[in-house]
Write a structure and sequence with these properties.
By secondary structure, chain A is α/β, with parallel strands linked by helices. Chain A is 25% helix and 20% strand. Chain A has one domain: Rossmann fold (3-Layer(aba) Sandwich), CATH 3.40.50. Chain B contains 18 helices and 14 strands. Classes of the chains: A alpha/beta, B alpha+beta.
Chain lengths: 88, 482
């Protein structure tokens, strides 16, 4: 069964990279490997917290009890994708 | 009702019956007026981003009244995190619009009144706070844009309100009825006034007993009978009437200010939040000012745009590798991030008021705003230095597109061969817009005088610092025993 992933962005006050472009790339690279959850947090297996910088201030209080994977820079993408592909 | 979309916001404005005048004529269609519309676009951005997954973390909050998700601009700060997010939201929107997005003043007004009405009730046994909460819920539920109106015309600066030759120089209560009050006067420099659903008025300075009629705070629908708006004009404003998409610099967004006249306007009691409690006028002014001085976080976002424009102009000029240009870009970033330090610091050092509302650190908010009265001017000087004189001697867009002149403009104003002349002209127009065009109203003069002129911050700084403790520290280290 494919894991369902929910994306949670920080607010993007002064991001050091294009967070939306990174998520688009993530979706391409994980195509067929995972399912993407909408805002219904009850149905996701993993929350990817996409922070615009290392301050990592996205409010994750709604995701208590969920596995959360933080991304704070473009370099965080490759190991995350690799991990999920290995799992799959 | 859910949070409004940008489209719903625009449609809601069309339903208002505002009495707006500009260039001596009544404006029948405010929303589509080419001079006003860019400012409406900027406010609309505050609605649009609240629905954007990549920005909702800053742009939305949970109402402490209803528990519902609301636009942060209608939120009462419940903790330090809310205050920090407010600063970050200001930077975000400043960078997205490159101008004043006009909605912070309403947020600051609501927060200040939430603190002061509670305190008035505590001293005088009034019921302003529950009345305010009911009004706040209406604002939150309908996601309304609020014009926070503080600055009176003020007449003779050496005289207090009751001493003025014209008693209407400050907004005042002229009649008290069983069902409400009647107010007369005006509020000047009202940012975003004709893009607002509501006006919330506050006194403009501390009041004495003799000024009691002027100690008044209330809310009105922006199209209430008796309210007239007279638009202020901005440098280069009529470029927006020329058509085209280059000479106005920022082709998407802008700001506006208006003189708002209250000609014997009736306010029902349920919308009155202060009536003659002159002993709280100063507290309301000081609290609002602290919040609003924090709000100048937006200038950091506009600074981001100016720095980006200056770097781009340097590249287009082929000068970006020059050491002095690189150093000037570093200096611009240093100044801009120093501003950011202040607005984050005053939020991070916030505290809880008796009403439960969190307030910024007032000393640090004043220090931040005082920096804002200076640094954007230096940032603008550096941007103009980097841009070069062509910024102010460029021919018009129409000349660029005219067959007789366009070929010469393209030939002689080409710099970097990889960059079309039109792009070079566009970035120079943006710098012009920010540093001496319509956006300079917000980026420079508003930075100077908005939320209080520099002297107002210096007074607050002198009041708030603890000089005695500093002296004690110094004396201890050098062995002075007293």
């Amino acid at each position: 069964m494919k894991p369902r992933i929910r994306i949670k962005y920080c607010g993007g006050c002064n991001p050091k990279y294009d967070r939306v472009a990174l998520v688009e790339e993530m979706k391409v690279r994980l195509s067929g490997t995972v399912e993407w959850a909408s805002s219904d947090i009850a149905s996701c297996d993993l929350v990817v917290a996409v922070h615009g910088c290392e301050t990592a201030c996205a409010d994750l209080t709604a995701f208590d009890g969920y596995e959360i994977h933080p991304i704070t820079c473009p370099e965080d993408l490759a190991p995350f994708v690799e991990r999920l592909c290995l799992k799959g | 009702m859910a949070m409004m979309t940008a489209e719903a916001y625009e449609e809601s404005l069309r339903k208002l019956n505002l009495q707006v005048y500009m260039f001596g004529e009544k404006i029948e269609n405010v929303v589509d007026n080419p001079i006003i519309r860019p400012s409406m676009n900027a406010v609309a951005k505050t609605y649009e981003l609240a629905h954007s997954p990549e920005h909702e973390d800053l742009m939305t909050a949970t109402s402490h009244i209803t528990g519902k998700k609301i636009n942060r601009f209608t939120h009462i700060h419940q903790n330090v995190s809310d205050l920090v997010k407010k600063s970050k939201m200001g930077r975000l929107l400043g960078r997205e619009t490159g101008c004043c997005f006009q909605r912070c003043v309403g947020m600051d007004t609501l927060n200040a009144i939430s603190i002061v009405t509670y305190n008035i009730d505590g001293k005088h046994g009034t019921t302003y706070y529950p009345r305010f909460l009911k009004y706040l819920e209406y604002i939150q539920e309908n996601d309304l844009m609020v014009d926070g109106a503080m600055t009176d015309p003020k007449g003779h600066r050496g005289l207090s309100p009751h001493q003025q030759p014209d008693p209407d120089a400050f907004l005042r209560v002229v009649e008290e009825r069983e069902d409400g009050i009647v107010v007369r006067g005006a509020k000047a420099h009202q940012t975003g006034a004709v893009n607002s659903h509501e006006i919330v008025a506050m006194p403009t300075l501390s009041m004495s007993k003799e000024d009691a009629d002027y100690a008044v705070s209330f809310a009105l629908p922006s199209d209430a009978e008796g309210i007239t708006y007279i638009m202020g004009r901005q440098s280069c404003d009529t470029r927006k009437l020329e058509g085209g998409s280059m000479d106005q610099g920022n082709i998407l967004f802008g700001g506006h200010e208006a003189l708002v006249v209250f000609d014997d306007v009736f306010v029902p009691w349920e919308r009155v939040f202060m009536c003659r409690e002159y002993d709280f006028a100063g507290q309301l002014v000081e609290t609002f000012a602290a919040y609003h001085r924090q709000s100048y976080a937006c200038k950091v976002g506009v600074g981001d745009v100016l720095i980006g424009a200056a770097q781009t102009a340097a590249e287009y000029n082929g000068a970006d590798k020059a050491s002095h240009i690189r150093d000037k870009i570093v200096e611009m970033n240093h100044l801009n991030e120093t501003l950011y330090c202040g607005c984050i610091a005053c939020a991070s050092e916030g505290h809880k008021e008796p009403s439960g509302t969190y307030c910024v650190n007032i000393l640090l908010a004043n220090v931040h705003k005082h920096n804002v009265t200076r640094f954007p001017f230096e940032l603008s000087r550096l941007a103009q230095d980097i841009a070069g004189g062509l910024m102010v001697t460029l021919p018009s867009e129409k000349d660029l597109h005219a067959p007789e002149t366009g070929k010469w403009i393209r030939k002689y104003f080409q710099a970097n061969p990889d960059v079309p002349t039109e792009n070079r002209m566009r970035i120079l127009r943006l710098i012009e817009n920010l540093t001496l065009g319509t956006a300079a109203v917000g980026y420079l003069t508003e930075s100077m005088h908005g939320a209080g002129s520099p002297q107002a911050q210096r007074i607050m700084i002198s009041r708030r610092v603890n000089l005695a403790e500093k002296q004690k520290a110094a004396k201890k280290l050098c062995g002075i025993a007293e």
